[in-house]
Design brief:
- Helices cover 53% and strands 7% of the residues.
- The protein has 333 residues and is mainly alpha-helical.
- The two termini are 41 Å apart.
- It binds tryptophanyl-5'AMP.
- Tryptophanyl-5'AMP binds next to strand 1, helix 1 and helix 7.
Length: 333
């Protein structure tokens, strides 16, 4: 019998505090963080060190970090069941990142499409933005994660984390668990409502195209009703040919647990699809917003959750880091 059958999997994932949480973050990743808690041993991390890779305002970073941690509790991350913590409060991440930087090649980091997109033609591009995927690999490998629930845009980074783990194990002996990406079948890439060829993103300047989890429900409904749709009136799930309508079908499908292709058969016009999609998203965010308001009125609770989480994370990360240090030939501390 396979000894892993019935075993609890270790799940790890992270989110950057670079802007308010979007519907894309929630449908593509965060709701799967919540559901994984039923069966698996989960660690969830606000990856604040990753937020330093792009220009930022320190006061804003502090506020966004606390807001994000509060949102994670509000959506249902249960601190008694899962470990919720801040990356910067567990120094092992930065230390293992160095070993990962020395495992990755410049060539493979240069091929990362997110680096190319984020670097664009900016005058200043930090070295940290370039080595970002090495830190992300360290985040995951520090906890012997079996599965990493993420949206589709993180697929390439996950593949690199797997390559680095495999290479390290090959060079220095078995040290790391090689993780799998957990990418949802529906809404793995929620698109901008005004430009459905572009990913919905918390850092984009597209106020009408991006739905925020904590936004006023009336504004959310308005944005969805005004979403750009495609030429032709047919409602069909076809992300290539009909990106606008397919995005709405994917959002509605993810929000209500239905297959977007089946849903498409129920609509003959765009208007009713938009109305149902708006209603479903508003229903989804309402309880989250109520819980957020409760938690935000008592920031001490979330700070205490994070401090407890950091302690639990450190206890797991320390031995793995020691294993990796010993494997590469560093003397014990
Ligand atoms: P981040 O902070 O950009 O996004 C957090 C999660 O949300 C998903 N996501 C989306 N899913 C569907 N549609 C969208 N429009 C959309 N936008 C974002 C992302 O795929 C992600 O799962 N590099 C990571 C953070 C990270 C991490 C890690 C993740 C750092 N270390 C270790 C997993 C494991 C990032 O920038 O995610």
């Amino acid at each position: 019998m396979d000894p892993t059958i019935g075993a609890v999997a270790r799940v790890f994932s992270g989110i950057k505090p670079t802007g308010p949480v979007t519907l894309g973050n929630y449908l593509g990743a965060l709701r799967n963080w919540v559901s994984a808690q039923a069966d698996d041993d989960c660690l969830y991390c606000v990856v604040d060190l990753h937020a330093l890779t792009v220009p930022h305002d320190p006061a804003e970073l502090r506020a966004l970090t606390l807001e994000l941690a509060t949102v994670l509790v509000a959506i249902g991350i249960d601190p008694d069941r899962s470990t919720l913590f801040l990356q910067s409060q567990v120094h092992e991440h930065a230390e293992l990142a160095w070993l990962m930087e020395c495992t990755a090649s410049v060539g493979e980091l240069r091929r990362m499409t997110q680096f190319k997109e984020k670097a664009g033609d900016h005058e200043f591009v930090s070295a940290g933005l370039f080595t970002y995927p090495a830190l992300m690999a360290a985040d995951i490998l520090l906890y012997d994660a079996d599965r990493v629930p993420v949206g589709d845009d993180q697929r390439q980074h996950l593949e690199l984390a797997r390559d680095l783990a495999t290479r390290f194990n090959h060079r220095f002996g078995p040290t790391f668990t090689v993780p799998e990406a957990g990418i949802p079948a529906v809404a793995a890439r929620v698109m901008d409502l005004q430009d459905p060829t572009r990913k919905m993103s918390k850092t984009e300047e597209s106020p009408q195209g991006v739905v925020l989890l904590l936004e006023d429900p009336a504004a959310i409904a308005r944005k969805i009703r005004r979403a750009v749709t495609d030429t032709g009136a047919e409602v069909r799930y076809d992300p290539e040919a009909k990106p606008g309508v397919s995005n709405l079908l994917a959002i509605l499908g993810a929000a209500t647990g239905q297959d977007p292709c089946v849903l498409a058969g129920k609509y003959e016009q765009y208007g009713p699809l938009k109305a149902d999609c708006a209603d479903a998203v508003v229903e989804l965010v309402r309880p989250i917003q109520a819980r957020y308001a409760e938690l935000a009125s008592d920031p001490g609770t979330v700070a205490e959750i994070l401090s407890r989480g950091a302690g639990k994370a450190r206890a797991l990360a320390g031995p793995v880091l020691d294993r990796a240090r010993a494997a590469v030939g560093l003397l014990p501390r």
